[in-house]
Amino acid sequence: MLGRPALPRPALIPLLALALLALGVLALGTGAVRMGPLEVLQALGAPREETHTRILYELRLPRILVGALCGALFAASGAILQGVVRNPLASPDIVGVAAGAGLAAVFTLILLPRAPAWALPVGAFGGALAAFGLVYLLARRAGEVPPIRLALIGVAVEASLDGLRRLILVRADDSIAQALIFLSGTVYGADWERLFRVLPFAALLIPLALLLHRRLDVLSFGDETAKSLGMRLEPARLAALALGTALAAVAVMGVGILGFVGLIAPHAARLLVGPGFRLLLPASMLLGALLVVGADTLGRGLVPPLEIPAGLLTTLLGAPYFLYLMRKAGRVR
């Protein structure tokens, strides 16, 4: 007997978007003050002076939007890095991009406390690019970058940079430490100001990534295929890596270092829609948003009014998955 026909892959994108919308409604009602989905919808249409409406608009809605946007950025970065490096273990946190961006942001705010607002994303971008470059150079051997070697060196560099960042925060003034609390990997305290700080960069980088899906496909096929198709390999690879690091750097500005989002979401998206970047990128971004919003919602709802950081939950989920991928890669080799 023939089974039911599989759902067309493009149809999965709107389904993921609907799932994100439903999770958003659930997240709006989760917290110390609980509300059901119908109560949430009613409160969203009520006057802003009402208590429940103020909680939704002033506290929970910007938090959910920041989490979804930064989760999408991390996932897009991971998908691009995995495709360009052709390494299934590559991600913003595994290859040091997130920790490099976070460390650079710390240095920027401590050394330049009165710097203009654009100094933070520029510093985070530079730190992310430098960290990835360090991992890539250390992992490169005989003109190649073995996946396991890249992953192991990336973990070591990531841990070193993250440890240095934490040491600086411990030694810093209380005001600086409070200002950088978001770097610990949490959506706690996200407000409209933080959303509008991230949104302009996301509005530029996400459409750019989507427009470059054909170039990313060619790069993921390998160097020989790219050259045979007439692509200038090194400039194209540099542009793609810069785009991936920029996406992760902007995400760090919004929610700090959320572990393994850029690893899990692209892998899950690849299983759903295949390796083509035309569908892989939007599916990865939606899954990344679902992962971060889901982790933050779970962290708020388990033991209210206490909150578990979203970064802790994504790490608890991602670490076993990373070990599974390491073991699978070892069997393939």
Automatic annotation (TrEMBL):
Query: Is Cell membrane included in the keywords of this UniProt record?
Result: yes
Molecular-function annotations in GO = transmembrane transporter activity
Instruction: State the UniProt keywords alphabetically.
Output: Cell membrane, Membrane, Transmembrane, Transmembrane helix, Transport
Instruction: Name where it's found.
Output: Cell membrane
User: Which membrane topology describes this protein?
Assistant: Multi-pass membrane protein
Q: Which residues cross the membrane?
A: 64-85, 94-112, 118-139, 198-216, 236-265, 277-296, 308-326
What PANTHER family does the entry give?
FE(3+) DICITRATE TRANSPORT SYSTEM PERMEASE PROTEIN FECD-RELATED (PTHR30472:SF37), FERRIC ENTEROBACTIN TRANSPORT SYSTEM PERMEASE PROTEIN (PTHR30472)
This one is known as Putative siderophore transport system permease protein YfhA
Q: Which organism is it from?
A: Meiothermus luteus
- Gene coding for it: yfhA
